[in-house]
Amino acid sequence: MAETSHLQDSLPRIRSLLFAPASRPDMCAKLPRSSPDGVVLDLEDAVASSAKAEARSQARDATVDLRGLRPDLAIFVRVNPPSTEWFAGDVADGLGEELTGVVVPKLESAAQVDAVQQALTKAGRDHLLLLAGIETAAGVAHVGDVLEHPSVHIAYFGAEDFITDMGGVRTDDGLEVLFARSQVALAARLAGVPVLDQVVTAFGNDERFLADAAVGRSIGYSGKLCIHPAQVPLANRSFSPSPEEKERARALLAVWDAAQARGEASVAFEGQMIDEPLARRARALLDE
User: Fold this and answer.
1) pLDDT digits (tens, 9 = 90+) for 173-195
2) Cα–Cα distance, 116 to 200 (Å, whole number)
């Protein structure tokens, strides 16, 4: 795993990252109400081409207002991809002083990350956390190069754009993106960066969201992108250990520590053999 020039220990913990169009000040003002860990003022998909210039100033204003409402909130602005005509203007004019970080979608190479960092430096915003979006075929193919770049602090997998780029079809069970979703989680783990899971577009279907989040957590994601406030408490719950999980972890470690004191390298617990990797997983769960 990469050494932490990524400063992972000092990063905000993000179980839920809630998006709103930067061009909708009314929606942006309501973002903290559902208690997300982080919010994104979106200049990309959620803003029409004709509204992008005005949305930049709206994003700066919303950042100040949100920081006043919740000083601890992780606040990001998602700019347009580096390959678009809007990227330079977004970085120059859309990133306020109170931001936590910048979300850059559709990153596909280390060279692109270099270009992003140069643009941020030129704008005097190179102190911001960089959240890299992996959501194209090329992005998944080169995900290790992107996430191992020292400027990248957090990442997310965007399934909708990815499967569109692939010319595929989204299905309810999500098998068509499981390989790519797993590849991004693996690359993030190797790079030492937290990674946020794909959106669930059916925002009125709690069961589907919880099932999708359970899969994401099981393969190593630490949080989820949210497109509706109702998804935030579901994400926070899904990516936090339950009281039952914590109690089981404590019981497992008690059995394990006793076995270690007896000089045993493995021991039975609740009908299964446990060893150091399982004990390590239990410790990690209790640290969340």
Assistant:
1) 999 999 999 999 999 999 999 99
2) 28
